Amino acid sequence: MSKSILVTGGTKGIGRAIIERFAAEGFDIFTCARNEADLASLKTFLEEKYPKIEVLTIQADLSKKEDVTRFVNEIKAAAIPDVLVNNTGVFLPGTIHNEPEGNFELMMQTNLYSAYYLTRGFVNEMIEKKSGHIFTMGSVAGLTAYPNGGTYAVSKWAMLGMTKCLREELKPYQIKVTSILAGATYTSSWEASDLPEERFMKAEDVAESVWAAYNLSPQSVVEEIVMRPQLGDI
């Protein structure tokens, strides 16, 4: 029976790179995004390149709890994923004391609450099976405070705390939990930057690290992966 991976926000950047890495290993793919056209394009690409895998794409805005619930239910009707990657996120620059009204709610709902609700949606089945691997896509902003980081940094600090709690809770059930704390990675959000592409990490390198962490024996777990550009933070 094929193994499967669920990656939220899987049409671009790190999410897509992770999907392509696991698809190459024969994993069935479950993912979501807000843009239906991007999802259709991804599905076509994967099915043409990896015709033996199953691909399920669902339009959803995970900043909305009702969309998270619907997404979980639709995936459960197909399977319980072996790997869950909480990748959905949004970055709006600003400072806590004067960022625009609503930034806090949007970033916390997208970056943290979606991962909380999604994990709760699948973890009891993982506990029953005594298997599974949960990855959360954090950030080096969850380790170090940066100017103009605002609520984004708050959400990533909270994500790291939630991931640490999950690790302790799920130890007895043979479920692995790993936090990915990535620095500046070249994705669409950085394309308008004046910095050269080689100054950034590659999304494929993050994906390779996720695959390596997953591919260990049952006796070992990578709890945290901290990745930065070779020349340091941007």
Automatic annotation (TrEMBL):
Disulfide bond among keywords: no
One matching Pfam family: adh_short
Family in the record: Belongs to the short-chain dehydrogenases/reductases (SDR) family.
GO terms assigned for molecular function: oxidoreductase activity
InterPro entries: NAD(P)-bd_dom_sf, Sc_DH/Rdtase_CS, SDR_fam
PROSITE patterns: ADH_SHORT
Name used for this protein in its record: Short-subunit dehydrogenase
Signal peptide positions on this chain: none
